[in-house]
Amino acid sequence: MQSQIDAYFEAMEVLFSVRDPKVLTALGPSSVRGLLLHRGKQGTPTDMPATHTAHFDWSYPNDQPEMADLYRRAKVGQWNGDDLPWNISVDPLDPTRPLIPEEFLCFEEIEALGIKLDKKERAELGYSMCAWMLSQFLHGEQGALFAAAQVTEAVQFFDGKLYGATQVMDEGRHVEVFNRYLDTKLNKLYQINDNLFVIIDSLMTDGRWDMKFLGMQIMVEGLALGAFSTLYKETKEPLLKEVLKMVIQDEARHVHYGVCALREHFTKHITERERQEREDWSFEIALLMRNRFAAYEVYEEWFEGRMTRAEWRNVVYRSKGMNEFRTVMFSRLVPNLREIGLLSPRIMPRYEEVGLMQYFGGLAADQLTADKLLADLH
Ligand SMILES: [Fe+2]
Ligand SMILES: [Fe+2]
């Protein structure tokens, strides 16, 4: 009961912290559905009405050479999920090949709250955290699959539509491999995190293609790339490492596409007021991603009644693994926002306030190859 009240107040805190009324209008209904009604957790499928416009062009122009090049690379880069080494047997509690290293979580913080976990429990908690992360990847990939399909219909660039078709296939394959790994190797699936639900709900139901694009290709893909990369770097389980390596290579193209399409659109096709709205929206989403992905589903399984949600959030926030995840995520995300024109001097002080300006000078996705991304993680 106390935990439910805490969750309710936390949802209110999220809503009241949004300063811009337009952003609140865009996020509010999704927040109510996700944070208060827990629509993703009712054990039934969720229907989200989509209101975008399918844009046809009967002249088939070659209008975007950079996207045409991405399309060519994406065709060559296709792979078959069946070819991964699925014969590797995975023991989630094997100490010689841990899914995530012990220091990924901060056990001292948990102990400081009077909760002592023995070696076996620590390994089991690591297993829970890893299964939780992979479950969120899977749910995010389902969102990415549908968003990629919607954007393929709605985008005006013809070369972007062809490229988009490859992304739909990529995302389908990501759903396939994460689902297969969770189902056949970890035998565990967590429900969708409420904050992830809010972001997906918000961009699926927004009729504006560029908002879908910004939400999925820049924000959620940035989040995913940060999380995939951290797990890729930290895991000692060889099959998971291979799955993540293949997925990261596809995701690098997806974010590149997002930067390429939105840079063109935001600098040439929208008004300054519209640009500002997108700038504010992405800041709020960045904050949500920074502060709220606290694995509450793991908390409810392990610690509900033994510590408060705020205490758990603190444990997660201070853990080495989550810290690294945030660093990788924002070092990729912030330069991309700069590159598409959503980090103007007007918003910089707010990024400064929350400590994110340190990533401002990094390379954006159009200057990063998949090889470079992977090399950075060694
Ligand atoms: Fe994906
Ligand atoms: Fe993707």
TrEMBL record:
UniProt-recorded Gene Ontology molecular function terms: oxidoreductase activity
SUPFAM superfamilies in the cross-refs: Ferritin-like
Name the UniProt record assigns to this protein: Ferritin-like domain-containing protein
Origin: domain of life: Bacteria
InterPro entries according to UniProt: Ferritin-like_SF (IPR009078), RNR-like (IPR012348)
